[in-house]
Design brief:
The complex is a heterodimer of chains A (345) and B (97). With 345 residues, chain A is α/β, with parallel strands linked by helices. Chain A has helices at 20-38, 45-55, 85-94, 110-114, 117-128, 156-159, 165-192, 208-224, 258-268, 285-301, 326-340; strands at residues 6-9, 15-18, 101-109, 135-140, 197-203, 229-234, 247-248, 251-252, 272-274. Chain A has one domain: Alpha-Beta Barrel (TIM Barrel), CATH 3.20.20. Classes of the chains: A alpha/beta (345), B mainly alpha (97).
Amino acid sequence: MENKKIPTRMGDGSLTWMTAGEMRADLEEGTRVAAERAKVPPLDESELSHLLEIFASASRFTGVDIGDEVVLTYDGVGSQHIGTRIHDLQLYEQHLASDSVELYHPDYSFKAVKTVVPYEQGVMRQAQANVTVPLNYGAMPDLGRYTQPDGPVPNWSTLMPLGKIDAARAAQEEAVEHAVADMVYVCDGMLEAGADGVDFDTAGAAGDADFLAALRAIEAVRSRHPDAGIQIGMASEFVLGMHGTLEYDGVRLAGLWPREQMKLAAKAGATIFGPAVNVNTGKSGAWNVARAITIVKPCVQEAEIPVHMNVGMGVGGTPMAPWPPADAVSRSSRAMVDILRLDGL
Amino acid sequence: MRTAGDLVARMQITRGMRLPKAKEYVAGKLGVSVLDLCDPGVMYEVRGELGLGRFYDSESTYPAEPLAMEAKFRIAELLDVPINCVGRFRTLAGLAE
């Protein structure tokens, strides 16, 4: 039995065959490397055993126990290729039974959306007349968009290799001001058009300045819209120190892991926090899931607001593939909910 | 809307309630158990009785039942939670008290 090969997935979604013993070894290795890197406790024996139960099965699909269902939120719904964007929202509500839906512009960036806010408002208003479930509006802070030649500020990625660190930092600080203004403008507009909430997705993608811009925008939106839903989803498990010295509320942002990211998001005024842990495509699903759970566990344990972990293409143990296999998606989703007691995905 | 996910989601999105508290809150307002919230059979009846919106299906479009904006008026009142578009609809339609 120990040598029986079981079909499972690699981090790129490809099918592979492993014994239960090999999976157990990957689970142990995944939690070990995560604990060392994030300086958090590794998973315990009962948690590893439960994960092995989930992965050491050839079933096409798996799911949480009855009664353990969680809420799903999204970073945009629909492909925008069939019918209209409102049709996408209705299909997700009426045919896929989504708990919530999210309207988005195909250029998923607040900077780009700023130029078409009146059109987006019109769609939001019509959509709200046609859907019952909560309807958010989402985009990315996308700080890199503010760099030359396309944006207004010098490009810090070209300044840093030249040793012009002060200039690179000044450029990021200037970009933060532009981004905050754009995000608040767009959020004001979409909430004015009836959005239930706004989603700052892939925050921190350009590093600590990107995360700072999102936090400051959240703070501003919260002060102007006390009842608005505000969701923030992270770009990765670790805030890159592209600037290195930026702080929010006295906390240095570079190097923050999910628990500290969540605390700042809650302090800024977010109502839902979405941690993200990137997938290693060369490792198995078991390895990636154990690693992701280990990193995020302290965040969920100390959360004061709902935690909706990013479990999709390339994050949260789900394969980095255009169409992640359902067997892998269901395993990573169930594992996250079972072990972490998440509030949603 | 097959069950009560949208209602629980509203308490998370708008009130920042964590999952167990949000489920208990919604179940209390609906007068059902927490386990009932994830039972499509129970929630089909409850949503119909309370006018919280149901799926169109092959047999009926429920023309006499609230859906979308109409249902959201009822959801806001039942859950005692502000729904942005409902408030704006009320104002723009001249229904504000």
